[in-house]
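User: Please fill in residues for this 148-position structure.
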């Protein structure tokens, strides 16, 4: 992966999916006014920012009206979020143009392994994933025709 460097060395890993990274960045960058923000408000904002995967809400949604600060963040006695690290976190955040669709994570990972190593094994893995993707696309197209 292009953004998978640790101390200058590629580690061959996806360091975070777009939703999780966007959610963490949103949390880290909130102003002290966010102490009154609900889970639902943050969820809707993050869903709008995530464009390369399909965000879904599941589980016990009865807590959606609860304040975020009941579950996360560092608040003082007045309920204000500690945002002192926000500028440093924003500088360290990965670039959005490096994001890929979650469905394509395995293929992208194989592609970058092949471009870094260039080995026959990495090439075979990449070809197999491309064929598998083509098979899935053909199956989806056939299913769509049957549904009409």
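Assistant: Residues filled in for all 148 positions:
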């Amino acid at each position: 992966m292009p953004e998978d460097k640790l101390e200058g060395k590629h580690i061959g890993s996806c360091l975070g999916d777009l939703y999780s990274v966007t959610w963490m960045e949103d949390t880290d960058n909130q102003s002290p006014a966010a102490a009154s923000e609900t889970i639902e408000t943050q969820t809707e904002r993050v869903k709008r920012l995530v464009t390369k995967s399909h965000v879904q809400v599941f589980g016990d949604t009865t807590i959606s009206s609860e304040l975020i600060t009941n579950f996360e963040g560092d608040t003082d006695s007045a309920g204000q979020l500690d945002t002192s690290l926000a500028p440093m976190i924003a500088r360290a955040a990965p670039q959005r143009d490096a994001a890929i669709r979650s469905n394509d994570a395995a293929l992208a990972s194989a592609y970058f392994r092949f471009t870094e190593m260039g080995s026959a094994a990495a090439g075979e893995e990449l070809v197999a994933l491309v064929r598998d993707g083509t098979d899935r696309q053909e199956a989806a197209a056939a299913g769509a025709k049957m549904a009409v």
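For context: The helical segments are 18-28, 39-49, 86-92, 105-117, 120-147.
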